[in-house]
Amino acid sequence: MFDVRLSQEGESGELVLPRIWYKGYVAEYSAGAKGTQPLIAYIPLSKAELQQYKEKHKPNVTQKALYDGRATICD
Predict the structure, then answer these.
(1) Distance between CA atoms of residues 20 and 68, nearest Å
(2) Separation between Cα atoms, residue 75 and residue 25, nearest integer Å
(3) Most buried of the four, 16, 31, 41, 54, by CB within 10 Å?
(4) Are 42 and 63 in contact (CB under 8 A)?
């Protein structure tokens, strides 16, 4: 458990949690705060990355996890 306070009220932000995500994480918000449940952030692979994956016979995927698979929460 840890507390986080954003610098500017009303601005949205993203927090990367210090551990690898697993399905048991649950976010509890206090003092009227709102936000998402922990999840892994993904971005699409670039054309160059897709080509590298194909050349190296990696699985046919179209996205990759950010932050080494650590969970993120957003407000």
Answers:
(1) 8
(2) 16
(3) 41
(4) yes
Q: How far apart are CA 30 and CA 37, in angstroms?
A: 14
Instruction: Give residue-wise pLDDT tens across range 18-71.
Output: 777 677 788 888 877 788 888 888 999 999 999 999 999 999 999 999 888 888
Q: What is the pTM of this model?
A: 0.67
Say if residue 7's pLDDT is above 70: no
At residue 39, φ and ψ (nearest 5 deg) are -155, 170
Answer yes or no: are the C-beta atoms of 27 and 74 closer than 8 Å. Answer: no
